[in-house]
Hints:
By secondary structure, the chain is mainly beta. The protein has three domains: 33-125, Beta Complex (RNA Polymerase Alpha Subunit, Chain A, domain 2), CATH 2.170.120; 136-217, YbbR-like domain (RNA Polymerase Alpha Subunit, Chain A, domain 2, Beta Complex), CATH 2.170.120; 219-306, RNA Polymerase Alpha Subunit, Chain A, domain 2, CATH 2.170.120. The chain is 15% helix and 51% strand. The chain contains five helices and 23 strands. The protein has helices at 2-9, 11-31, 70-78, 164-167, 253-256; strands at 33-45, 51-55, 61-69, 83-86, 93-98, 111-116, 119-135, 138-142, 146-154, 157-163, 173-174, 178-183, 189-195, 203-204, 208-217, 219-231, 238-239, 244-252, 266-270, 278-282, 285-287, 293-298, 302-306. The strands form six sheets. Strands 2, 5, 7, 10, 11 and 14 form a six-stranded mixed beta sheet that branches. Strands 21-19-16-18-22 form a five-stranded mixed beta sheet. The protein has a four-stranded mixed beta sheet with strand order 4-1-3-6. It is rod-shaped, with a radius of gyration of 47 Å.
Amino acid sequence: MGKIRDFINNWQYRFLALGLAFLAWYLVSGREKVEIWVDVPLEIINLPPNYLITNGGMLNKIQVRIRGTKALLERVEEKKISYTLDLSDVRKGSNVLVLSPKNLTFPGPLEVVEVIPSRLELVIDELVVKEVPVVVKWEGKVSRYFELTSVQARPKIITIKGPSTLLENIKDIKTKLIEIKDRQPESLTWVEKIGLDLLPEIEAEVGEVQVEFKLAPKTRELWVRRPVELKKPQDLTVVSDQKFVRLKLALPLYLLKREGWRDMIQVRLEVKKNIQPGNYNLDYQVILPPYTQLLEKRPERIAVQVK
């Protein structure tokens, strides 16, 4: 009972001693120096106009080792601190920049011990603009009765933008591949839209172009004998010994595979109403199928007698 009575009578002193012990522990542990690693965002400023970073610019944070008391280090982790990298003095080409601990400012008596990486190598290039022609990239074939006469992109020339070291070796820009699979054309001209085959570092004023394909039918040269159709006024009598003419034609191959293709070739001799009686050598009209070319005709004119 005496010990309990002594504790009750002296409780104030005992609690005071316990509080002083905690205070001493806190002061000792709070002043003890420790080190920690923290991630610090890397901010790049003042990059000159028309300059760009082509290599080494993917780093967006650095690691910093700092030394200080536990209490201060806990506050650091709560605050937003960044490392600012000034690029106002960079030049075109390779630039080695030192990441100095002096460029970091922490609150209180904290010490920056180390920065990783300590150096940063940036490759700087100039951003340039260039005009280049568009080259259509295609493969395949059209129908065997036709041939491709021209392939043309619209626009023919485009403006591209990118690093100078890359653009100096670029002479043209190709389209993505267009495949032609034994096409039987509905017309001799058709247009397709197609994207450009661009490197990721290059910008273009357009993302796609129109490609115009022009075809021509394959032909064969033949001599064809056709009758002469006479057209005259009813009150005139026209006599001619020339009942047929011979024509040298460049005929499309697809036409020759059709039956009755000769019937599509017509020869007309027209005698005008106001013609006077007499003997004449008259020109005549040759009517041809589409894409057929007249190379030669015999005779050149037809002799007639008008009565």
